[in-house]
Amino acid sequence: MEYMWYERRTCNVGRKPKPKRISFDVSSIIERFYPDPICNEEEVEINAAEIEALRLVYIEKKSQKEAGKIMGVSNATVWRLVKSGREKLIKAIIDGRPIVVLK
Fold it and tell me: How many folded domains does the chain comprise?
């Protein structure tokens, strides 16, 4: 399995975030999802680290501790990524918003 490092985009304040290991090819994932019909034009942005955390926890059935070891981050970081990703996806589904995947 080949790993790819993902670094979150932030402003220049404070320390740099720890890079997260992404074990899938980011270039192969779809960039946008559009609901039918589009009820709200405002897009929901989800990043590759959130997708990886959701994939490991819900598809691979890993615990958050195991997912943290695979991604090279703490359990709390995995929990925050899963929570954030879930909220974004649910918001997009309920409000009929397009989903944009940030690579």
Answer: 1
